[in-house]
Amino acid sequence: RMLQNQNEGLQQSLLKTAVRMECLGEEFISSQKILETELQRTRMELSNLMGRFNRLRDDCSSTQQTNSRLELKLHSVLQNMEGEQERLNLRISELTEQLSDAQYASTMEEIN
């Protein structure tokens, strides 16, 4: 009878262990599904961030190229303006000299 009681006790213990193992298995499967869902969501988020990063990088590169072109154009305009300023300064000097000559000639005529 004692062996039968031990046998029944072991069977009960085995049954409880089997039920607990089944519960743990279900928890594991549930956790795995949650983690797989989270992993998929994280992959999608990473993909979106990578796309955004690539667009920003392309925009930055395009902006740098535009800035370089504008810098060259500005430099060219500046050189043209400096050349025009020099030309105008020479013209002012010529006209000032002509005016001075004309005033001198006028003064000489009045004296004569």
TrEMBL record:
GO cellular component, one term: trans-Golgi network
UniProt subcellular location: Membrane
Broad class of the protein's primary localization: membrane
One GO-annotated biological process of the protein: Golgi organization
Membrane disposition: Peripheral membrane protein
Coiled-coil regions listed: 39-105
Signal peptide: none
Alphabetized InterPro entries for the sequence: Tjap1/BEGAIN (IPR043441)
Keywords on record: Coiled coil, Membrane, Phosphoprotein
Protein name stated in the entry: Uncharacterized protein
Biological source species: Poecilia formosa
